[in-house]
Amino acid sequence: MYVLAATNMNDIMESVPSVILSIIFSWKVVIIMFDIKKVKYCLQSIEKDWQLLNTNTERTILQRHAEYGQFLATAYAIFVHVMQICYILKPIIPRLLDNDITNSTKPIPKLVYPVEYGVDIDQYFYPISIHCYLALFAHSFGTIAVDILYCILIQHACGMFTIIEHILEEVGKDNNANFQFKLNKTTDIDYKKALNCLRKHLQVIKFVESIESVFTKVFLISVNLNVICGSISGIQVILNLDNPGTILTPLALYTGQLGHLFIQFWQAQFILDYSTIPWESM
């Protein structure tokens, strides 16, 4: 209805990003709800991995990655909230700066979402704006939760790969002069370490496959719509370079989409880089 209600190209350019953002945010939450069993498996795997750590060094490694994931989650949440605050300032700032609120010849102020409530928007501007802001924050909290979950899962997988590297590097360090070719598998320390690495590696591979299974469907729609939304917002930024009063909203959208895409691709590159660590340590 946003797009159908638009009367000119400018209205369409302003309406389409709002529609796209709503679809992206809703799609993420829906996919997580449908794949809740796989998400639950991932969270249970994290708990199990913490319980099976054998040394303080392993705990330190995993703790370091967990803290880094927490830092990324906090920074990303702050970034998204700053962008959405910039996004909602456009309709409210001219209203607050305008002293002549009784002038009926003024154009009707635009809302964050181009909605139609069937009432006088100018008269009920603030109640309608509050409703729009609540809807925007509800959508953003949903997408923040999904993206933070993605970062935390990826960082845990990276931590497990690092632990496997550490264990492999310890294999053979306890050898002594009494080395024998016919080893007793039940008592040989290096054999137990190698077997432990194999088990952990199989578990983390299954863990990563579960992440891929869930978030491939999320990114299938999210990334494509992010690119479209970012392109439209970029065009609006270019068209409004000479008009600082209207550039804030498309600029916030454009920056937000770039940040959104960056965090997704960056974390994916993390898992690609760390997955090769066990092979390099051998």
Structure write-up:
With 282 residues, this protein is mostly helical. The chain is 77% helix and 0% strand. The longest helix has 51 residues.
Present the secondary structure layout.
Elements: H1 9-34, H2 36-51, H3 56-97, H4 125-170, H5 189-239, H6 244-275, H7 277-280
Shape: elongated
Strand composition percent: under 5%
- Distinct helical segment count: 7
Q: Quick check: average pLDDT?
A: 80
* Largest beta-sheet details: none
Number of strands: 0
Structural class: mainly alpha
Output the helix-strand order.
HHHHHHH
Distance between the termini: 59 Å
Helix fraction bin: over 70%
Radius of gyration: 26 Å
Membrane topology: Multi-pass membrane protein
Subcellular location: Cell membrane
InterPro entries: 7tm6_olfct_rcpt (IPR004117)
Keywords: Cell membrane, Membrane, Olfaction, Receptor, Sensory transduction, Transducer, Transmembrane, Transmembrane helix
How would you summarize what this structure contains?
Pfam families: 7tm_6 (PF02949). By secondary structure, the chain is an all-alpha fold. It is 77% helix and 0% strand.
List the keywords.
transmembrane, transducer, mainly alpha, 7 helices, 282 residues
